[in-house]
Amino acid sequence: MNNINNLPSALGKWINTELYNAQLYRVLSKSAPDDRSRHILEEFSDDSRDTAETMMKAYKNMTGYKFIPKPLPLKENGSYRSVIRGRIGDEVRLSKMYRNAYMNIQGNYTLRRIVFSAYHNALEHAVTLLELMSGS
Fold this sequence. Notes:
About 75% of the residues lie in helices and about 0% in strands. It has about 140 residues and is mainly α.
């Protein structure tokens, strides 16, 4: 039994969010100030894309249907630093959402593992973005 009211719907939202993040990090990497930052942002893009693909497989296993993503237009604008600053908060909020989902999904251990991995990635992204902001 799941405590999340409509798990397939929630999973669909998470997939679209991860695909949006993958696209945003790929675009943002092109304006990175150095190779290290570019590489990190490209890795974040890959992380988000991989998470979305894993979630799409879980969606199909859960519903029997292939998930059709709804591409979200990129809305982030501003300087590289201001977008990075905003992404820190976004990743923290995302980690909290995944943490709560993880705690409320019962019985579906495969999905719990996927959500825990997404939670971990969001935390790692937030901390690394803080390091990028500080120039470390």
